[in-house]
Amino acid sequence: MFKPVQMRKIRVLVLDHYLDRVMKVLGRLRSVQITRIMEEDIEPISREKISDYSHILNRISHLIDVLKIRDKEIKKVPIDEKSSEEYMSDIENMVIEIEKEVIPISEKLKRIVEEKNILKNDELALNCLDRIGVDVKWLGTSDFLYTTAGFLDLDKIEELESLIWEKTEEKYLILKKLFQDRFSVVIVTLKEYQNDVEGVLKGLNFDILEPREKNLREVRERLKLIKETEEGLQRDLNRIGDERFKDLLVAREIVQIEKNTQEIMLNFGKTDRIYVIEGWIPTKDVDDLVEEIENASKGYVVIRIYKPKPDENVPVLLQNPKIFKPFESITNMFGLPSYTEIDPTPIMAVTFPLIFGLMFGDVGHGFVLALAGLGLITLKKGNKSLWNFGMILLYCGILAMIFGFLYASVFGNEKILSNLYESWGIGRTYTIAGGETLRALWRIPSHDIEYMIGIALFVGVLHMGVGLIVNAVNNVHEKGFGTIVHSLSKIWFFCGEVTIIASLFKFKIPFFQDIARMYPLIGAATLTETILNPILLFGIYIPVGLMLMSELTHGLQQFSIKKLFGLLAEGLFEIFETFSMLLSNTISYSRIAILAVIHAMMCLAIYEIAGIEAISDIFILSILIIAGGNILVLVLEGLIVFIHTIRLHFYEWFTKFYSSGGIEYTPFRIERKYTQLSDQGE
Known about the structure:
Layout: E1 7-15, H1 19-29, E2 33-35, E3 43-44, H2 48-66, E4 77-79, H3 84-132, E5 140-141, E6 145-153, H4 157-167, E7 172-179, E8 182-190, H5 194-203, E9 207-208, H6 216-265, E10 269-270, E11 274-282, H7 286-296, E12 301-306, E13 315-316, H8 328-334, H9 345-359, H10 363-379, H11 384-407, H12 415-424, E14 428-431, E15 437-440, H13 449-479, H14 484-505, H15 512-518, H16 527-531, H17 534-555, H18 561-588, H19 591-610, H20 613-616, H21 619-653, E16 663-664, E17 675-677
Parallel strand pairs: 4-17, 13-16
Antiparallel strand pairs: 1-11, 1-12, 2-11, 3-10, 5-6, 6-8, 6-9, 7-8, 10-11, 14-15
Helix pairs in contact: 1-7, 2-3, 2-6, 3-6, 4-5, 9-11, 9-19, 9-21, 10-11, 13-14, 13-18, 13-19, 14-15, 14-17, 14-18, 17-18, 19-21
C-alpha cells in the first residue's frame, strides 16, 4: 500500500534446446514482463515463424467459420508437452485432413447459393411480369417497339409518366401494379425512343428486370432441387462440425499460444545456441521463478537478478487492499504513478467519498446510490469495470447517507429528521421563515452558507496539504533530503496564504480564522504595522526566504552576479506562480459548499411546486412531481457532483504531487481455455 510492488530485473541465458520449456514456465507463472534486448553484440530473433503461425491460424479460423463453430464451454483437453515444431506438424496434418473433407463441400455450397440467388431474382421478375400479364419474351427490342420492365419507388411514378410522355411525344404505354412497397412497371414505346427512355429510367433509379430464365415453372422446380441439395450439404458440414469442433478449438488455442510466444520472443537476444531473456518481476515471485526455470532447463541456464537503477523505467503494479482497489480505476484515468512515487489510491479512497458526501448529503439519495452500487456488484461480478464502479457508488452512497443524517435531509425533506431530533432534544436549531424551526445534527447547508463555505475551504486546505506532504516525500525519495527545506517551506507558505485569505475575505475557515482575528491585516494604524504583521512575517516572509535560499543553494554551484540574479528572478517567479496557483485551487474547493446548497435548494423547489394548491389537491400529481423531481436531482445533480469530485482530485490535488508517468506492468501469460498440459492439474 502507498508504494507500487517492488520489482527486480531478471536476465536469463538459456540453451536453445530448453527454450520452449522455459517459455511455458514464464507463460504459466505470469510474473515476468518481457523487455526488449538492445545490445549490439546480441542478434534479434527472426520473424519468419510468426508468418507461418498466422497462415495456419487463418486456415483454422476459416474452417471454424465454414463449420459455424461457436466458442463453448468444454472440459479442458489434456495435451502432451512438445516442442513448437511438433505441435505445428501435428496441427498442420489435422488441418489438411479436415480441409480435404470440408473445402469441396464448402465450394459446392457456395456455387449452389450463388445459383439460388440468381434464380430467386429470376423468380421475382417472372412473377411480377406474370401478375401484370406481360410475357417475358416481349422484353427488349423488336422491329418497331422497345419494351422494358422493373421496379420504381411509389413517390416517383408520377414523375416517370410525365417524363415518358414528354420524351416519347405521347407514343407510349405504361402498365403498373403495386408489388410490396414499390410499383412493378412495364413501359412500351417506339424503338426510336429507346435511348431517351433509358436515360429517364436511369435518372429515376429504375430497377430493371432482366431475368436470365424465361420459364417460371422451370425456375421454381430448379429452386426446389437446389434447396434439397443445399440442405444435404449443410447437414454434411454440421456433421463434420459436431465431430471436429473440439479438435479445431484446441488447435486454434495452441497455434494462438505459439504465435503469441513467438511475438514475445522478438524481444529476446540470440547468440549461436543461447537465448537471452530480460524482464521485470515482482520481488516476491523471484524465488519461485528461478526454481521453475532451473527445473525446466535441467540446470542449463544462467539467471541474474538486479535491483532497478534510478534511470530505468520500471513497470508499475499497484498493491492495495481490496477495499481500496476500486479507486485504482480513477487513479488510472489520470495515469499510473511512477515506480518511485507514492500511490495516491489509498488516500483517495478516503477523500473521494468524503468530498462527494459533503456535496450530496441526503439519506434517501445516498441510500439509492448505495443500492445501485450493490446491484452492480451483485449482477456484474465478472465485469471488473462495473464491479469497481459499483463499489465506488456504494462508498459514495454511504457517505452521502452519513452527511444526510448530519444535514437532516431525507429525499430533500428537512422536516422528517428535524422532528425526530427535536423529540430527542439533540442537534442545532435553525429558525426559518414564519418562525418555524428546524434541527440538524451538524448544519443545514442552505441555512448556514457562510459556515459551509469555511468548512469547504478547510477541507480543501487539508486535501491540498496532504498532497504537498506527499510531494515532499516523493522529492526525498527521488532527489534526497536536500529537497526537504524547499518542500516544507512550500507547505508553510501555503498555510500563511490561507490565513491571509481568511483575514481579507472573512471566510470562516476553522483554525485559520482564529489566527486572522488575532492579527488582522485590515485596520492597522500604520503601514509599518501592516508590513510587519505576524501573519506576513511568519506566514509569508520566512518561508519565501527559505525557498529562495534553497533555490540558491542548489543552483549556485559557482558564484557569479549574473547567475545570482537569474536564480533570484527564477525563484521569485516560481513563488508568485505558486501563490496564484494555491490561491485559485483553494477557492476552487468552495464548490463543495455551493453544490451542497444547490442540492438542498433544488429539493426545496420540488416540494414548493408540489405544495402549490392547484397541484397538492391532486394527490397523484403531487406524488409524481416529488418522485420525478427526486429522480432528476439524483441523476442530474449526482452526475454533476461526481464529475466535480473527480475534478477536485485531478486538478486541485494531483497537480501538487502526482506525475503519473508510470508504465503498466503487463507480464507475459499463456491463457488456456480449452487445453491443459498433461502434467498440470485442473
